[in-house]
Amino acid sequence: MTEQFYDSGFSPEAGSVPDECALPWIDERRYLIGGELRQWRGPLETVLSPLYVDGKQREIGVCPSLTETESLAAVEAVTAAWDNGRGVWPTMRLEERIAHVEDFILRMAAVRDEVVRRMVWEICKPLDDCRAEFDRTVTYLRATVDALKDLDHVSSRFVVEGGIYAQIRRAPLGPALCMGPFNYPLNETFTTLIPALIMGNPVIVKTPRIGKLLYAPLLSAFAGAFPAGVVNILFGNRNVAIPALASGRINVLAFIGSSNAADALRRFHPSPHRLRCVLGLDAKNAAIVLPCADMELTVAEAVSGALTFNGQRCTALKIFYVHASRSKEFLDRFSEAIGKLPMGTPWKQGVKITPLPVPGKVNELQGLVDEAVDMGARIANPRGGSFKGTLYYPALVAEVTAKMRLHAVEQFGPVVPVVSYTNVEQALEAVIASPYGQQASIFGTDPDAVAALVDPMVNQVCRVNINSQCQRGPDVFPFTGRKDSAEGTLSVSDALRVFSIRTLVAAKGSSLNKEIVSNIVRLRKSNFLSTDFLF
Q: Which CATH class, in words, describes the domain spanning 285-474?
């Protein structure tokens, strides 16, 4: 039965792929630099899907394997578009930049199905979740436009203080390099790309390590919607990111990935103190289950929080501290819930567990589980930790201790470590000792017990969730982290601020200065000095 179960989800027959997910071979040789869709004639990278079809891992296409030469050409393009702050894009009126972004949104919406189909095959995210990611991204872009209008409304008047007249607005920082993750290859990249763009920064996008081909349908949309050099799209790995940073002409690094990778990247910049970094990094989000927890609610949130998209989310719940008096009940309920999770291809109705896209991930997870078991932990659910190819059955690992790597390492996969505690201070101390500080969840019904954890936890993590899983949204909420988990804050409005800097034009209130400023504003001689109200 187990073998049949794996076969049905692991290696579908070619004829069983639904039309809405059918994907022909993709031969993509274009990349975008300086407003030009260039044709690549060099080495190509073969893109493999995590899915096996008819028993063989599916090759879905090829894309350019770009080099330092193309990286530096993109640097030249953004440098020209920036032109030391004098370029058309950074000096453009806000309403004009907004018009370009709105044009892009329409072009992007036209290729929705193609982007979604490629996402399904590249990262094996469930089809409905891929559609939701695309739609959420479009919603985020529109919300960013609205947030920018609100931000500018505050700046559309002059401030008078101590006899000095000033207009305070936000100005761009300069060329930016945006690098998103594989798990949300579209949404997480665009949550930095679009705010950076709309604030006036020309941008280089290095496509995610996994999730490259889904950017191909968007190349023409970027080329058509923005002036030359404002958006540049590079296929490749760190070999295209490093030369761009080493050039010293990148002012902003937006990166979502590991803290080790972020540290390594920023060191390549010759003046790292000048490099503004916006980083979403590692997380080991903890859940503390109190003796008073409503266990039905807790397990429902825990299963979703730990195993949605195989646990491949920075906001996933990655370790559970459960009071000893409730530990057996928690494990029994969690194990039962895992057994009901649909598993298989990303187009299977209601699927929750799909093949893992990162090469070698199954072996990595198994190494963590095997070590924990060797050190005294146990797998608490039937078939937990079994696997075939890229498909890994969730492992609920009980009796985990601080000596095990599974206690400290961000597993980023369908492995759920559970620690039993007798005093809540043990769980709190573990959160304090963790190098990560993104979010945490508290499950309990006693207000006093929950409150006793809230106050110390808000000084360890940046979001405390009560009786609910960790999550990023709604997108208007701040999204950040302490310790090794993040640098900078993202949300619809915060992102606009993080990719810009407060700048002002000031003048003493003399008759001459009043006349000069009034003339500039009335005759719209400046794009910065303006009292225009954006509707």
A: alpha beta
